[in-house]
Amino acid sequence: MGFLLCSSVQVLGTEEEWRGGNIPHTIGGGQKVRLLKEEMQNHADRDDLVVLFTDSYDVLFASGPEELLNKFQQFNHKVVFAAEGLIWPDNRLADKYPKVRSGKRFLNSGGIIGYASSINRIVEKWKLQDNDDDQLFYTKTYVDALKRLSLNITLDHKSKIFQTLNGAVDEIELQFEPTRVRARNIIFETLPILIHGNRQTKHLLNYLGNYVPDAWTSDLGCTVCNEDLLDLSTLDEVYHERHIHKFWEKHKGELDVKFVGPEEILSEGDARNMGMDYCRQDPECDYYFNLDSDVVLTNPDTLKILIEQNRRIIAPMVTQYKKLWSNFWGALSPDGYYARSEDYVDIVEGNRIGIWNVPYIAHVYLIKGTALRTDLKEKNYFNQDMMDSDMSLCRNIREQKIEKKTRSPTPESFHMFKPPKGIFMYITNLYEFGRLLSTENYNASHVHGDLWEIFSNPLDWRDKYIHPSYTEIFTGNVVEEPCPDVFWFPIFSETTCDELVAEVENYGVWSGGKNEDKRLVGGYENVPTDDIHMTQVGLDQVWLHFIREYIAPVALKLFSGYHTKGFAMLNFVVKYTPERQAYLRPHHDSSTFTINIALNNKGIDYQGGGCKFHRYNCAVESPRKGWSFMHPGRLTHLHEGLPTTNGTRYIAVSFVDP
């Protein structure tokens, strides 16, 4: 409980055990009145002293003493209580409240300001127990017309000083000024000084605390991001070297690894509980770092940055590529599920940079080991009825309670119920950390399902499957021209080639190089190859997107002035072997231009092979794995596939713009 004397602050009750009841869920709080009564006895005769009494753990100050005193004096009353629109704890007293034309009608005991002598006259009447209700005591005083008049009490009906958030969540908007931020009541057009997150509004209070009064401002940005940091600059030890050396010396003769697989029949919640408990049970575990498989961290300093921030729970912000989907929520709906905060888009898009107190984090986060061994010492935080494991964890962190079936407290045990001690969870976007993979449409039935992720995870698809020298096509001199208008450039990584071959071989239905081909509209192929079409393995749309995204820009550069449609009806993988089909006779392609990508290595996987262009009497006999030919299809570039003399040769071919 906070106690303000002019501009001095005194905290009451720090040396006492809380005996005021389980306030968020039932009546209580009388201990606060008793503490205030004891203190006010020291100021009983002070008619010139203004005292502000407020809850301490769920209140934000938006301004200072000067504005506070000015607003108090404008009330022209001896004592002013906070007000709210909902009555608590006894709604039978509603009819006894004075009517108000506009504003909040009911008293809230979380904020009191008045002259010391007048406040003393109120609290000196307290003769109840610590676990009796403070708000009921003040309410009975206020609704008694004679007492109200004699004590000169009023309520802050329009939130000029006190803003209670319970029942008023939609009334509050942030008002940004150059060097500070205020919470504005848009109903009454007031700028309250104390913001009280009473009842179930702590998450909104945390949100407001990211800004009010000056934690983040439009001119200064984040003003608290460099506070209370851990200095790791003096640590010159190579990470983990000491631990690994010690481990190796002890266990180099044997290695014991525990694998937790599907045969364990563990639910996701049970598995996560088990992982977290490993750190909890180890007194030398300083941090528990959770990293889900759908997170790609690209910043090698991620862990160092999180540790330096010195928060009990903190997560690096990661998002799906070019999407607003992230690993945090900025707000909660009334039923505890997702709601978009006003600042969510700005934080995700990097328009506001800082460290943010949020009600939900997931996928990747760091928790201090001391937190797990103190406030989070229960072993079952991830399992809660009808909730995903991440939501269950965050709810338990926020509320600091585990749902258990227990009897109602007895009068003897009632005082043992303390207010919840929720732990703040933070998200930081001070740096770029990485990204989230989109996994909702992932098909695990493929041999290499990542090949299909070009739409869901385009950046990761590019990193994995496009040749690392691809950008040099446009910025360097990597493109070769071994024959006239036959261009040769890197396009696929080694991984792409290997996985594409594995997919078609897994499918295994090769055409046999016959003229009769039911896959074609006319059922006949003039120059057949032993191949598998991309449509047969479900890669046709992926392949067409690949052509538009990666081949079309190359075509525009190499064939200046030609803008391809990026369309191809025939996209296929060809298999050359001496036994089935060793070569391909001279022919023109039914395309404006053709790409021909080598999928394995000459001299290692096969002998022979290559391509000869007859008009120019020019041949390329040493294809490079992952490199593509690009050449005109009709009229000028009659060509043939040279014989494969040993092994198996694979190529991927597309007839673009037929």
Question: Which key phrases capture this entry?
Answer:
658 residues, alpha+beta, Spore Coat Polysaccharide Biosynthesis Protein SpsA, Chain A, Jelly Rolls, 7-stranded antiparallel beta sheet, 16 helices
CATH topology of the largest domain: Spore Coat Polysaccharide Biosynthesis Protein SpsA, Chain A
Computed over alpha carbons, the radius of gyration is 35 Å
| CATH architecture descriptor name of the largest domain | Alpha-Beta Complex
Neighbour order of strands in the largest sheet: 26-27-35-31-38-29-28
Strand count, sense and barrel status of the largest sheet are: 7 strands, antiparallel
**First-last Cα distance:** 78 Å
How would the global form be characterised?
elongated
Tally of structural domains: 3
Chain-averaged pLDDT: 91
Query: What ranges have pLDDT less than 50 throughout 5 or more consecutive residues?
Result: 402-419
Query: Can you count the beta strands?
Result: 38
Helix content: 10-25%
- Report the β-strand fraction as a percent range: 15-25%
Number of helices: 16
EC number: 1.14.11.4
GO molecular function, one term: iron ion binding
GO cellular component, one term: rough endoplasmic reticulum
Protein name: procollagen-lysine 5-dioxygenase
Q: Can you tell me about this structure?
A:
The protein is of the alpha+beta class and 658 residues long. It folds into three domains: 2-222, Spore Coat Polysaccharide Biosynthesis Protein SpsA, Chain A; 270-402 and 414-436, Spore Coat Polysaccharide Biosynthesis Protein SpsA, Chain A (Alpha-Beta Complex); 449-656, Jelly Rolls (Sandwich). The protein has 16 helices and 38 strands. Strands 26-27-35-31-38-29-28 form a seven-stranded antiparallel beta sheet, with helices on one face. It has a six-stranded mixed beta sheet with strand order 2-1-3-6-5-7, sandwiched between helices. A hairpin with a 3-residue loop joins strand 12 and strand 13 (221-222). Helix 1 packs across helix 3 (116-123). The protein is elongated, with a radius of gyration of 35 Å. Residues 402-419 have low confidence and may be disordered.
